[in-house]
């Protein structure tokens, strides 16, 4: 079984995976991933709009960290996990028993811990290198929207991960990443479960990738989203309800982000109203 030894080990694997994804996406030239990094740095220092969008992602990730601190300090803490369990029962436990295998555990842990963040980073690198700023901005908007909608749920609608509530579910993540609870857990509380951000962000990246002209990325990003969704059940992390909410959030975030990146209004009615006012002004 392949074992992730620590977060340092995971970080090294993420860097290598980003390089491989850029290599496969950018004409398969071993130098192109470095060119992509160079273009990214150049745009960061010469393109103010580019820099501000990246800053927006940093800010929302900072607020995500604050949410964890704030939640831990809240005196009244509701728990909606029993309601979710009553709704879907042992679905995840049955799902696990059907597929449990050491090789699959290693593979899915790698996707959950390593490939998931690598896809976000590679998406930014690909669109920046190709100067497809519409999709680059869409990724930035979508990540911010995903977190902005999810964080209030984590504060006021806490749902505990399946393995921590249902004794019939194993936390298979620990088999392939033994230090997960000590090193990865500070990034996300045990009850930051509904909606599943692993699902929503993966779906979002897939939907935006389908708008690109990169043949490899249009296939890989959706395939990765499917594997991530499979992994959240198999590893014993999320409920079916989390996945359903995450899918809706991912689709919504992608749609809004793409419209914003194209300079379109969010609602057709508002566009009609603007057009009508413009026509009225002529008279």
Automatic annotation (TrEMBL):
SMART domains: acidPPc (SM00014). The chain crosses the membrane at residues 7-26, 50-66, 107-129, 135-157, 215-237. InterPro entries: Aur1/Ipt1, PAP2/HPO, PAP2/HPO_sf. Residues 151-258 form the Phosphatidic acid phosphatase type 2/haloperoxidase domain. CDD domains: PAP2_Aur1_like (cd03386). The keyword Iron does not apply. One of its GO terms (cellular component) is membrane. Pfam families: PAP2_3 (PF14378). SUPFAM superfamilies: Acid phosphatase/Vanadium-dependent haloperoxidase. Keywords: Membrane, Transmembrane, Transmembrane helix. The keyword Transmembrane helix applies. This is Inositol phosphorylceramide synthase. The lineage of its organism: Bacteria, Bacillati, Bacillota, Bacilli, Bacillales.
